Amino acid sequence: QGPLVESGGGPVQAGGSLRLSCAASGYTSGKHCLAWFRQAPGKERERVASIYGGGTIDYANSMRGRVIISRDDAEESLHLEMNSLKPEDTAMYYCAARLCWDSEYRFWGQGTQVTVSS
Known about the structure:
By secondary structure, the protein is mainly β. The protein has strands spanning 5-7, 10-13, 18-23, 32-39, 46-51, 57-59, 67-72, 77-82, 91-99, 107-108, 112-117. The strands form two sheets. Strands 2, 4, 5, 6, 9, 10 and 11 form a seven-stranded mixed β-sheet that branches. The protein starts with a strand and ends with a strand.
């Protein structure tokens, strides 16, 4: 597999939208489960959304209803569409992968910063 590389973060006004992308070469064959996490300054890292090997999707409560996770197998990429952004969504957002039989996400990108201003 190649490295996980996030992009698409940046500054945005409250109420706005952003689409994050993650280059995930070698991780979209179905053997890997993929997820987006975020970490705000001084806070624990938290999962935002997951997409499992077979395509099942799960959203954490923190952003449920405001985000859509998707996987593009042809382009070997992972995306996170974020809408109705709030200042409290300001965080570093990370793409992560694990073999689906493994409980731990062992592969991580460097992150992309999202800053939401009021």
